């Protein structure tokens, strides 16, 4: 089987940035021409015991906007240079959200060798974000 290379990046909520306490909450997976993102609504609900309601609401809004905003941004990068989508996109992600929002953080994108599809994404998501 021929595998392609993808990039993954885990999204974290920093519950106490001063001591680097964080909770994995979402996962991006990018191929040369596609993107999958999801986050755990269960973990977001669990944060209500750690963070004020207005912060939870802001986090939920930010996470939902990732699904919309980055999907359209991906289309722009596809037109520019399809082979550099992953790096440009994830660097843009960190620039936009890491500078003004110290509650969301992102791991450095990891290059992984696997076929880009929803089934593989779900397996990766379950192992990194929600292992039930």
Any idea how many domains? Answer: 1
Query: What is the overall pLDDT average?
Result: 79
Order of helix and strand elements from N to C terminus: EEEHHHEEH
The helix-and-strand class reads alpha+beta
Low-confidence stretches: none
Shape: globular
| End-to-end separation | 29 Å
Measured by DSSP, the beta-strand proportion falls in: 25-35%
- Provide the helix percentage: 40-55%
Q: Total strand count, please?
A: 5
Q: Quaternary status of these chains?
A: single chain
Gyration radius over CA: 15 Å
The helix count comes to: 4
Largest sheet descriptor: 5 strands, antiparallel
If you had to describe this structure to a student in words, what would you say it looks like?
The structure is a single chain. The chain has about 130 residues and is an alpha+beta fold. The chain has one domain (about 5-130). Helices cover about 45% and strands about 25% of the residues. It is built from 4 helices and 5 strands. Strands 1, 2, 3, 4 and 5 form a 5-stranded antiparallel beta sheet that branches. A hairpin with a 4-residue loop joins strand 2 (about 20-30) and strand 3 (about 35-40). Helix 2 packs antiparallel against helix 3. The longest helix has 28 residues, at about 55-80. The protein is globular, with a radius of gyration of 15 Å.
């Amino acid at each position: 089987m021929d595998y392609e290379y993808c990039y993954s990046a885990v999204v974290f909520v920093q519950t106490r940035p001063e001591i680097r306490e964080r909770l994995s909450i979402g996962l991006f997976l990018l191929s040369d021409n596609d993107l999958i993102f999801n986050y755990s609504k269960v973990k977001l609900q669990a944060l209500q015991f750690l963070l004020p309601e207005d912060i939870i609401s802001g986090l939920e809004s930010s996470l939902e906007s990732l699904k919309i905003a980055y999907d359209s941004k991906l289309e722009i990068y596809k037109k520019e240079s399809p082979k550099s989508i992953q790096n440009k996109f994830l660097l843009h992600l960190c620039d936009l959200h890491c500078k003004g929002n110290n509650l969301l953080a992102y791991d450095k994108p990891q290059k992984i060798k696997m076929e880009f599809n929803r089934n593989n994404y779900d397996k990766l998501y379950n192992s990194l974000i929600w292992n039930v």
